[in-house]
Amino acid sequence: MASIADYYAGKNVLITGATGFMGKVLVEKLLRSCPEVRTLYLLVRPKAGQSMQERVSDMMKCKLFDRVREDNPDFHQKIVPISSELTQPALAISPEDVERLTSCVNIIFHCAATIRFDEPLKHALQLNVIATQQLLSLAQQMHHLQAFIHISTAYANCNRRHIDEIIYPPPVEPKKLIDSLEWMEDSIVRDITPRLIGERPNTYTYTKALAECVVQRESSKLSIGIIRPSIVGASWQEPFPGWIDNFNGPSGVFIAAGKGILRTMRANNDAVADLIPVDVVINLTLAAGWYTAVHRPKAALVYNCTTGGINPFHWGEIEHHVMSSFKRNPLEQAFRRPNANITSNYLMNQYWILVSHKFPALIYDLYLRLSGQKPQMMRIFNRLHKAIGLLEYFSSQDWEWNSENMSMLMSHLSPEDRKVQHSTLTCVS
Ligand SMILES: CCCCCCCCCCCCCCCCCCCC(=O)SCCNC(=O)CCNC(=O)[C@H](O)C(C)(C)COP(=O)(O)OP(=O)(O)OC[C@H]1O[C@@H](n2cnc3c(N)ncnc32)[C@H](O)[C@@H]1OP(=O)(O)O
Ligand SMILES: NC(=O)C1=CN([C@@H]2O[C@H](COP(=O)(O)OP(=O)(O)OC[C@H]3O[C@@H](n4cnc5c(N)ncnc54)[C@H](OP(=O)(O)O)[C@@H]3O)[C@@H](O)[C@H]2O)C=CC1
């Protein structure tokens, strides 16, 4: 059987979300460890005054691509940006580009999504569900497609405590919701959102669950794999340790603690912190693409890409490691000495918010005002409180994911691929 790199040799790959955190790592890894891959078509939109070409050129200059650049200075020739706004009808891809893609794409990785926890439902539905549906329609027109890999989240079913590698019935029939929201005013949608999302904490997890269902419905026509990563953090080993480009999930919390701003947060010391490095997720994603294309499973295979069941780590241990690491390596321009604690007690947390967040912010802003400067500390704390308020749901409880398909996939790798997949194997075993 072909190795992973042999499989991708000569293949045309379509990637959505390539400018995002995970997408960039996927593009890098494909170019580095599958050097014979033919073309990577990236669906990109213009943004912040930059054309899609400028955005992709800037991305390729990033340090993340240093190793690829060393191996092959002309690697950019393999990258073809395709203009696409995923929230528009037919993904706003030109007819010429549709023609080009449908005639040559062999494998699709769908990473694009809105991952904001405070996204209005209509927009989250548009991007996470409707765009996925449209991409599946495009996939069906592709003459040489061998696999469709959808990136979901381990928390799509966070209303359950135990989560198997199956697609659960959706909270609502996606089509019915899409049809109803279409005519509703934004203010009405905002009012009914809490009732709709029910036990889920935000529109993100709700729409990701609906997207899985939409993907599953195409599984008789396409070969599909669904990857469900838990909390994706900085790279562990590849292309180098510690690469990250955002403050999502716990990363922002760690920095706020290191800067001495955050001193208290509600989390359960004994709950499993299901963190997974981005390179491990991407290695698994590429392996799943290979497996799906080669084995053509009859039903969509779901991979719970999680670590808690195999190598559990707890929020209490994280607090200890994060704090001792900042004590050894202090951050520059810290507000004060890092000294953050987590507590599961709501009242205790409120007390510390008052004493070690709001009161010092008030005093500091008073000092800024008196010295003729603009007050800013209370504004920073208000933003921090909003962010941690949205994260606490995930740090105050734990989940149990079955990850048999991930282990099955690892056991199918050739000895050669095992070396390339070293980080995945070590992290999940
Ligand atoms: C004692 C220390 C150790 C403590 C240990 C305990 C830690 C517990 C941490 C628990 C974390 C649990 C996280 C679980 C998440 C699981 C979810 C499932 C995973 C996924 O499937 S997807 C990834 C998850 N998605 C996110 O994380 C997105 C969450 N973010 C948002 O929804 C929005 O950013 C937010 C928080 C609503 C803020 O919106 P807004 O105010 O509009 O701000 P912007 O997003 O525009 O950002 C403005 C500015 O702020 C920076 N920023 C954003 N978030 C943070 C943050 N958390 N901390 C610090 N700074 C942050 C952002 O980069 C922007 O900067 P600019 O310079 O660009 O302006
Ligand atoms: N990060 C995490 O912890 C986890 C992420 N996931 C999943 O992984 C996937 C990738 O997440 P991540 O990389 O962190 O997310 P990012 O927010 O970093 O990236 C999102 C990507 O989607 C693209 N995108 C968003 N809106 C549009 C649009 N309207 N048209 C075209 N492209 C658009 C963005 O493009 P642009 O640059 O133009 O905005 C960007 O490339 C998502 O599906 C997410 O649900 C799952 C579990 C955990």
UniProtKB/TrEMBL annotation:
Any one Gene Ontology cellular component term annotated for this protein: peroxisomal membrane
Family: Belongs to the fatty acyl-CoA reductase family.
Top-level enzyme category: oxidoreductase
Membrane topology qualifier: Single-pass membrane protein
Source organism of the structure: Oncorhynchus kisutch (Coho salmon)
Pfam family, one: Sterile
Protein name per the record: Fatty acyl-CoA reductase
Domain Thioester reductase (TE): 15-284
Entry's EC annotation: 1.2.1.84
UniProt-annotated location(s): Peroxisome membrane
InterPro entries: FAR (IPR026055), FAR_C (IPR033640), FAR_NAD-bd (IPR013120), NAD(P)-bd_dom_sf (IPR036291)
CDD domains recorded: FAR-N_SDR_e (cd05236), FAR_C (cd09071)
GO terms, biological process: lipid biosynthetic process; long-chain fatty-acyl-CoA metabolic process
Chief location category: membrane
Residues of the Fatty acyl-CoA reductase C-terminal domain: 357-420
Keywords: Lipid biosynthesis, Lipid metabolism, Membrane, NADP, Oxidoreductase, Peroxisome, Transmembrane, Transmembrane helix
Catalytic activity: (9Z,12Z)-octadecadienoyl-CoA + 2 NADPH + 2 H(+) = (9Z,12Z)-octadecadien-1-ol + 2 NADP(+) + CoA; (9Z)-octadecenoyl-CoA + 2 NADPH + 2 H(+) = (9Z)-octadecen-1-ol + 2 NADP(+) + CoA; 16-methylheptadecanoyl-CoA + 2 NADPH + 2 H(+) = 16-methylheptadecan-1-ol + 2 NADP(+) + CoA; hexadecanoyl-CoA + 2 NADPH + 2 H(+) = hexadecan-1-ol + 2 NADP(+) + CoA
GO MF annotation, one: alcohol-forming long-chain fatty acyl-CoA reductase activity
Reported function: Catalyzes the reduction of fatty acyl-CoA to fatty alcohols.
